[in-house]
């Protein structure tokens, strides 16, 4: 007990220990950096938690899409369909025009066999 310099490490976290050597001799300083834990991606069983997570992540996606369109002058279209069938969308310009441009580019790909060609406007 009472060991100085010993940092307790919670079992649920991973830590990296970084050693920095000074240019004068072998003096060492240590710093502990916490690495974010990985979350297992699977369906959320609780309906209220699932809806709250959907709403937060949807808003995050829309924010990132907007930022990408502004920062990089990109034409961005985002379509999200919820499990309840509700449509959520974002477009930096006209959604219809963006989809038309997308379809035109898709047709240029000779080997494209995806369902984009089945989309009717």
UniProtKB/TrEMBL annotation:
GO terms for molecular function: protein dimerization activity; RNA polymerase II transcription regulatory region sequence-specific DNA binding. Residues 34-94 form the MADS-box domain. One of its GO terms (biological process) is positive regulation of transcription by RNA polymerase II. CDD domains: MADS_MEF2_like (cd00265). It is found in: Nucleus. InterPro entries: MADS-box/MEF2_TF (IPR050142), MEF2-like_N (IPR033896), TF_MADSbox (IPR002100), TF_MADSbox_sf (IPR036879). It holds the Pfam family SRF-TF. Keywords: DNA-binding, Nucleus, Transcription, Transcription regulation. SUPFAM superfamilies: SRF-like. GO terms for cellular component: nucleus. Transmembrane segments: none annotated. This is MADS-box domain-containing protein. It comes from Musa troglodytarum (fe'i banana).
